[in-house]
Hints:
Oligomer: heterodimer
Strand content of chain B: under 5%
CATH class of chain B: Mainly Alpha
CATH topology of the largest domain in chain A: Rossmann fold
CATH architecture of the largest domain in chain A: 3-Layer(aba) Sandwich
Order of helices and strands of chain B: HHHHHHHHEEHHHHHHHH
Helix content of chain B: over 70%
CATH class of the largest domain in chain A: Alpha Beta
Number of strands of chain B: 2
Strand order of the largest sheet of chain A: 6-9-10-3-11-12
Number of domains of chain B: 1
CATH topology of chain B: ABC transporter involved in vitamin B12 uptake, BtuC
CATH superfamily of the largest domain in chain A: P-loop containing nucleotide triphosphate hydrolases
Structural class of chain A: alpha/beta
Radius of gyration of chain B: 23 Å
Shape of chain B: globular
Number of helices of chain A: 17
Number of domains of chain A: 3
Strand content of chain A: 25-35%
Strand order of the largest sheet of chain B: 1-2
Distance between the termini of chain B: 28 Å
Number of strands of chain A: 22
CATH architecture of chain B: Orthogonal Bundle
Structural class of chain B: mainly alpha
Largest sheet of chain A: 6 strands, mixed
Amino acid sequence: MDTILSMRGIIKTFPGVVALSGVDFDLQCGEVHALLGINGAGKSTLVKILAGVYQKDAGKIYLNGQNVEIHDPLQAKNLGISTVYQDPQLIPSFTGYENIFLGSETRQRRIISLINRREMRNRALELLERFHFELDLDKPVNKLGKVEKEIIAILRALSQKNVSVLILDEPTSILTRSEIAILFEHINILKKNGISIIYITHRLEEVFEVADKFTILRNGKNVGTYSTKKTEIDTSQIAELMLGEKLKQIYPTREGLAKEETLRVENLSLNQKLNNCTFSAYRGEILGIFGLVGSGFDELCKILFGILQPSNGKIFIKNTEVRLNHPKDAIQNRVFLIPGDRQAEGLVLEEAVSFNTTLANLKKISTPLGLIKSGQERKDTLQIINQLNIASLGPGQSVTYLSGGNQQKVVIGKGIYSDADIYIFEEPTAGVDVGTKASIYHLIRNLSKEKTVICVSSDVDEIFSLCDRIIVLYKGQIVLEKLTKDTNLGEVLLYGLTGGK
Amino acid sequence: MAKRAKTDFEKHWAFQAVFPLLIFFTIITIIIVIFSILSKEFLTAFNLLQALKYLANTGIVSLGLTFVVAVGKSDISFHYVSCFAGMTMSYFIGMFMGGKGIPPIPAILLGLFGGLIFGIINGIAIGKFKLPDMITTIAVGSLAWGMAYLYNGGNYIYQNFLTSGIIQFSDGKLFGWLPFPVLYLFSFYIIGYIILHCTTFGRRFYATGHNPVAASFSGIKVEHYITLAYMICSLMASFSNMLMTAAQGNGNVKGGLVLLMPAWAAVFVGISIFKKPTVYGTFLGAFLIAIMQNGFTLMHTPYYVMDLIIGITLIFAILVSRIQIKSGKVSAFKLSGKEFQLQSTSQRGIQK
Lengths: 501, 352
């Protein structure tokens, strides 16, 4: 087998941080090569350099033995490198072949350039025939299943001329078990057709199913390339390699002491997203729920906050069963969710800091008739700004102009001001810098002394280092529940990645 | 670094707040000067009161529309709804019980109630069932307009108007000099200002309009506030139409149609000054429109010239408000958008 692509000493820095520090990577002709690594390990940066989205700072890329420079995505396409991104955007009402040739339609060069549907369709069918795929391309995409959409996205990537390297960025994140099997069959057909595939994932079990080789990235470095055929390494060793050493000091000490039970969830289910989840949360400790994207943790948070209604199961708050039909009910039961997507779900960006911090508890700043006491509002917001150390010009500044970390603090401030008893933090530090991260962790720890705190995250490090008790969610099911001191990081990660199998 | 950014922002804010207001008053002054040159009657006390009556009509209807725009929706049904309300009132005054009619106050209340029903339909369809606002309000408006014809087959209703005392609601004066419409106008604006800008209700209207998801995540029942906004809008439009009906002394199916464009123009002039729908902004907008309406009437220009001018004003106001919203978004993107996220996600990698 020949090496089709080889990357040598790739370095990429973003302002203030090094994303890739000298990565070497080789891809053989006709192999499926998985790229493994936790969030932020540099997987995406590496493939984005290949796809021409980012430009490398240093290093060399050889394609078929020739040194190439990739300046933009178009150039990458011309070189035969094609990418299918996570959650491909297709136009729902367009048919399969229309989506495949979106933006590169066959045109008739006449007075006006009309789209030649027949030829487009023929070209699409040729493509199908070449890879022996079976798919109805005349149906609008919204009538197709998720895996078929993924295959159409792959076909779109393959519709470029002479594709030799195909990059698949977490293609299975929203697929079910049986759909994944279908996708893998297609990947194998592509492999037989001589297409080399870089497969990005953080699900370990898939690597052994579909890939020939895998490379683990950590902290922007290649920490090892292994073959899946030989048993050089087992899954727990891989987990260790993915994590490596970590900084400890940004986390406060784990000192939680479970007091009385405040929240109990029994047999909570939501269609196929959640399956019979039963657990309790206690005042005085931080309960961590770890799961990958798509494991159902988002749905769980939304059910506990009344945004989604469970198809089955009961929620008890302080031993009384509650029905949460709207976040209003949740807030009345003194539950507050600090949502994962702060800009979409947490903030009214155009408005002032004080507008946002007080929004969930307007009663506190108003007279019984609803008149706002602006003095009170200002005073209380200033207090929150000081307490959480929000870098802003004052209560009147619009939150649009705050940094991501400070915006997150405003959302937390809104939660604190709502006087809840049970706080659910969903991905509390996503897109937040290290300094703010540390202060958010301390804040959560302080909050947990008097209240119940549930921290839900796909960041295993965060869950393990911060929380007193850990629940691992895998494909909608609780697969592990242990006190943190009785488990280790590898075990938590392993259960999260594979469900413990 | 942070300090420099701060002062930039402060300057930016001061500029953004004061500059549009200056431009607005310059335009108003120019218009007043032009009209007073062209028409000797323009700056007389009598005409000022006349202008205030115009202001009352446009002002009241655009106040209601402000609430709908504040929750981030549109309403293009309120002028039709107002026709239905006006005809309902006229029917009860002139034709009910075989032509005997009922006193003005219950008739007005019935008219308002008629308008309110369509506001509720709009609100429930758009808030609760999440139908698209434009199409829904067109359909509901069409329904109201059709029903307004049912009362008298589209003919005028004028019976009992002179005797029932309804005209007094428009022509009456408080203390012998302050016209009632002006009184209504200011009381509604004061109440509207308090609701939208001084109470928790107002907060929830704005939160709903800016980010309904975040509002809902803060425990706000978004659909209630959308419904409420449509109710206020149709109520205000209905009231405005009834003032016009009282002033004209007869119920006219087409009477309310003139309300649509001036109201939208007033709200958007307000947005172009203050960057968001506000009660005071709408007032200034309605003021500008009323001055033009009054001035052109004095100059005996045909009515279509008026439509033309208001159309141009509306387009211009939308343009100005868009430019500001756009520039705000651009700076927001630069500060908290992609660049930042890139940096922070790679930092996540570093500390692991």
